[in-house]
Amino acid sequence: SGDPGGDVLCGTEEGGSGMKRKVTKGPKIALCLACRGTGLAEVPAGARLLFSWRKGKTAPAVCPQCGGSGRVTVSAEMELDIRPYQPKED
Asked: Where are the extended beta strands (E) located within 1-90?
């Protein structure tokens, strides 16, 4: 069995001078870019947080992208259009 996050070729179409290839990248765990891995939502300066915590302190807001874990899973499906390079002549 191969790497679950590797390229999976779903098919190719050759025609003329190029080739189209569908590629699927399986799920991988990545750092959440929205919170930079902290799990906390970025709150603009001066904004009030909606949650109150013990002893009148405010609790940090949870990042909506990762749900507070600081990590997300990322997958992708792409269609590559591969053609030979033909420089234009002057």
From this structure: 7-15, 18-31, 71-82
CA distances from residue 72 to 7, 28, 33, 76, 78 in whole angstroms, order as listed: 20, 8, 9, 13, 20
For 3, 4, 29, 51, 63, the CA distances from 71, given in Å and listed in that order, are 20, 18, 7, 23, 10
CA distances from residue 70 to 17, 22, 34, 65, 78 in whole angstroms, order as listed: 45, 30, 9, 9, 26
Q: pLDDT tens digit string along 38-80? A: 999 876 555 555 544 455 555 678 999 999 999 999 999 999 9
The pTM (predicted TM-score) of the whole model is 0.53
